[in-house]
């Protein structure tokens, strides 16, 4: 009888140990799952920005040549933030809002003035954080493909003086 009692005790001890072991494994697995779920979220995958399509160059209206005037207004259509016209006299810049964009330039007298029209496109960031623009495109021909050249004949070089405003 003592042997039966001893065997029953060993069996009970073994089953109790096995139960504790199995329950501790389940608890350990649950703790590991909690540890994983409590971990800080991983950062989002970086945004892959699509390649940008370059804007179209300025479409410059034809110029009047020859002319005896000392100034001429240059007009262009394009989606840019500013336009600069460069010739033998200097550079003339204007902001382009709204479209079309126009700037009056001085002409060097008794010579052919060669024009370069430069459109500056703004740097923009879209909602995904992709950055586009921030470049300039220049043209030396009008929208018909003719050179941007103005022959100024018999004129004088006038300078513009802006009034001084003091506060």
What is the string of SSEs from the N terminus onward? HEEEEEEEEE
Quickly give the structural class: alpha+beta
Number of domains: 2
Q: Give the uncertain stretches in residue-range form.
A: 161-167
Largest sheet: 4 strands, antiparallel
Question: Which shape, going by the Cα principal axes?
Answer: rod-shaped
Spell out the CATH superfamily of the largest domain: Immunoglobulins
Q: Helix coverage percent of residues?
A: 10-25%
DSSP, total strands: 9
Architecture per CATH nomenclature, i.e. the level-2 architecture of the largest domain: Sandwich
In round numbers, the mean pLDDT is 82
Radius of gyration based on Cα positions:
39 Å
CATH class label of the largest domain: Mainly Beta
Strand order in space, largest sheet: 4-3-7-8
| Share in β-strands | 25-35%
CATH third-level topology of the largest domain: Immunoglobulin-like
Count of helical segments? 1
Question: How far is the first residue's CA from the last residue's CA?
Answer: 117 Å
Short summary of the structure?
With 167 residues, the chain is α+β, with helices and mostly antiparallel strands. The protein has one helix at residues 2-37, and strands at residues 59-60, 71-77, 82-86, 91-95, 101-106, 111-114, 116-125, 131-139, 149-152. It folds into two domains: 1-37; 59-152, Immunoglobulin-like, CATH 2.60.40.10.
Quickly list its features.
single chain; 167 residues; alpha+beta; 2 domains; 3-stranded antiparallel β-sheet; 9 strands; 22% helix
Q: Could you describe the 3D structure shown?
A:
The structure is a single chain. The protein has 167 residues and is of the alpha+beta class. The protein has two domains: 1-37; 59-152, Immunoglobulins (Immunoglobulin-like, Sandwich). Helices cover 22% and strands 31% of the residues. The chain is built from one helix and nine strands. It has one helix spanning 2-37; strands at 59-60, 71-77, 82-86, 91-95, 101-106, 111-114, 116-125, 131-139, 149-152. The strands form three sheets. A four-stranded antiparallel sheet has the order 4-3-7-8, with no helix packed on it. β7 and β8 (131-139) form a beta hairpin. The longest helix is centred in the N-terminal third of the chain and has 36 residues, at 2-37. The termini are far apart. The relative contact order is 0.18.
